[in-house]
Give the backbone structure.
Amino acid sequence: MTAKEKLYALEKKLTAYGHAMGILMYDGSTTAPSATAANRGETLAMLSEESYKISTSEETRAILQELSENAESLDPVTKRIVTLRLRDMEEISKIPMDEYIEYQKLINESDDVWHKAKANDDYDSFAPYIDKIVAFNKRFASYVRPDMDAYDYALDRFEKGLTRETLDKFFENLRVTLAPTVALVKSAVPVDESPLNEIMPLDVQRKFSDLLMDILLLDRSHVGIGETEHPFTTSFTRHDVRITTNYSEEHYASSMYSVIHEGGHALYEANTDVNNAYNCAGNAASMAVHESQSRFYENIIGRSIAFVKMLSPKLKALCPALEKYTDEELYRAFNASKPSLIRTEADELFYSYHIMIRYELEKRLFTGEITAKELPDEWNKMYKEYLGVIVPNNREGVLQDTHWSGGMFGYFPSYALGSAYGAQLYARMKETVDIEGDVEKGDLTNINEWLRQNIWTIGSMLEPGEIMERAFGGKFDPSYYTNYLKEKYETIYG
């Protein structure tokens, strides 16, 4: 076998290990019996060890070095795979294998404990895991990038080049620019949210989820849906993508928008380049790019008046109790804005404040200013300061998100950046696509095709910033996001 053939065989093997580990993690979060975490952890540890050995072996290093030395003769895909694998090898090889495996076991155990802790409002049982996970992440940062701040390294893992300095400016800009709109909404007559309070049985909501996935044009032969405490999307390859949601009879809109949000993630994963389905060049570019897709579909498409008009008759057929509401009343209810307790149910205007709170707390955890023991009090204090919201319990407070149980410190800012990216993509797309007209007809073909060409099929062939600048037709500009929010909410409330 040539070095190139060996490389592609290596890629397929690593994809297979990732697939197996992903299935185990997905199963653990959805249908696995409650006492199976330890057994699953042992299997994950063994698979992680083998994956680590393959990724860092001398044979792998030799293949990559040989190809790298002849980079000028490589095709673009192979060249990119070599670049990405060398980058990953340089990082992972600096982490001792025993610590890497121990961390994988910790994450599996932590996720299981978090599910039980949230169900029982038992933060104390979960708190030690936060301290352990933060300690691991800081130690890994010191191994891989001793020249970099540990939290900057955490941010960089999810969005290449992202730093606290960049985010501090971004969030400060949002606070200052949106302050008048926030004040207007807080002082305005509240929107009637009665349409959100109608009961929808769970079996009907499952049919509704299927309908929403069909509207998004998700290929159901390759994209499945499950149920879990905290909605998420996972992709084993572009050929097998899973989303999850959480149902409540009293809050049908919560699941409705989680399905649309996760559906945006799934569209991205299921539409990467089929020729790169089993190599790292076909992976999604970054988490902010990923969230730009989910937040775009959830909010810019899913909460638009055009989408509501298209969906209204279908929704009312499923839930006759909604017949008494006009499309305008449904639209306003779906976009009702007010400070809220739960991030995943926050409206667009206040959503980034939830992200700011988590961002500030993560920074303080990484500097050692606070520990997991102080986290609930600090969380509650910041919710009162930023949103004026009283947190009644830890289940609806510090335990509401799954991310920290999975070691995903540095991920949350991706949601806010992704929301801003989505607004700029929307402005660019409107130049050539009749977005509102297509949505009102219930045909997302042109929208999906624009994103397929400009985002999805590129995968990781380019760096995230380069992908977005090409799609934007210029530099990232947060004013597209703040202008979008101001225009929308000043129209609804003004």
